[in-house]
Structures are given as structure tokens and as C-alpha cells.
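Thread amino acids onto this structure.
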């Protein structure tokens, strides 16, 4: 597996199926800024609401291979293994990456379990072998990486931008950035912030 974080903003992504499982996959695509197309004869209320609000486009009919035209990725999330397999095969013919929910053999990529703290994302994958283990590890990491990481990462990003804008030796900049991202710097920052709040 090749782990990447994919920029989907503005890209057309197809979801075949509009049940509760598809709803979760769609939510993630929308949060990433994707342009979401849904194809399914019927849809759960949340997906109907998104359609009514103009958040996504829903075609209330069965999947057709032409639905994959101009698509970046596709998620097959129907209750029919046959339909999901068809979507995967048609996607392969068009070099479109496909995730077929709960069917590792018909997947080009998997949805990881994700810990998100602002711009900090920690993704966990078991290569489809044990989503339950990935979820348990996510819960443990959520406890380890609390909400304070969101503001810290934002601060580190601002400092990084300032340092790259300054006329500075590249090696000195690299060393300083690593020092600022150290555990010691994080602990010192939190100690100072706790002192201010008391």
C-alpha cells in the first residue's frame, strides 16, 4: 500500500449507493471539498437533504458505466455485491480508483481510521484486514493527541511560513523547525498556556 493524503477539493467523486454506509463516505468526501455525485435509486434522508441544499448531485437511478466519466475516485457502497463488483470492474477499465465498501478484493484504496486535530491527521490502515483494530488504535490515539494539537499545528504552520519568508540559512531553519516541533517545546507551550488560564 502507498499511503498518501489526497487533495480532493473541486474534484468530481462518485458514490454509488445512498444508504447509511454511503452517507458516512459522502460526509468525508464533502469535508474534503470534493464535488460529490451520487447514483442510487433511493437515498436516506441525510443524502436527500444534502441534495436539496445543493451540497451534492444525486441521480435517482441505477448505476451506468458512463457515470464514471471524468471522475477522480469512486466509492461503491450498495448492498449488492454484484453492483459493487460491476462498479469496480468498470472503474478499472477507466483507470478510476475505486473503494468497494467491506470488499477488500474489489478495492484500489481503503478508508483509514483517522484522528484529526485541525490540520494534523493521523491515518491508520490494516490493509483491510481488521477495521476493528484500526478503530481501536484510533481511539487510543485520540486520547494521546488531544485538542491542543489543533492550535499547536496552526502555530507551527505560521512560524514555518515566517521562517521561509525570511532570509535565513536553510540548515539553521531546518534545525529550528525541528526544535519547535519537539516534545519539549510542546510541553513548555502547554505549561505556559495553563499558567495563563489560572
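Threaded sequence (198 positions):
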Amino acid at each position: 500500500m502507498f499511503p498518501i493524503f489526497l487533495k480532493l477539493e473541486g474534484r468530481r467523486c462518485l458514490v454509488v449507493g445512498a444508504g447509511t454506509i454511503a452517507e458516512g463516505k459522502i460526509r468525508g468526501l464533502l469535508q474534503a471539498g470534493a464535488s460529490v455525485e451520487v447514483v442510487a435509486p433511493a437515498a436516506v434522508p441525510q443524502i436527500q437533504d444534502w441534495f436539496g441544499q445543493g451540497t451534492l448531485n444525486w441521480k435517482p437511478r441505477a448505476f451506468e458505466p458512463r457515470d464514471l466519466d471524468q471522475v477522480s475516485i469512486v466509492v461503491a457502497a450498495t448492498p449488492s455485491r454484484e453492483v459493487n463488483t460491476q462498479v469496480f470492474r468498470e472503474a478499472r477499465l477507466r483507470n478510476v480508483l475505486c473503494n468497494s465498501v467491506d470488499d477488500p478484493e474489489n478495492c484500489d484504496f481503503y478508508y483509514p481510521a483517522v484522528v484529526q486535530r485541525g490540520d494534523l491527521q493521523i491515518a491508520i490502515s490494516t490493509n483491510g484486514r481488521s477495521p476493528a483494530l484500526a478503530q481501536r488504535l484510533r481511539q487510543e490515539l485520540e486520547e494521546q493527541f488531544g485538542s491542543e494539537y489543533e492550535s499547536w499545528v496552526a502555530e507551527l504552520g505560521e512560524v514555518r511560513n515566517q521562517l521561509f519568508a525570511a532570509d535565513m540559512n536553510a540548515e539553521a531553519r531546518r534545525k529550528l523547525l525541528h526544535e519547535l516541533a519537539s516534545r519539549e517545546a510542546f510541553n513548555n507551550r502547554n505549561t505556559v498556556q495553563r499558567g495563563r488560564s489560572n
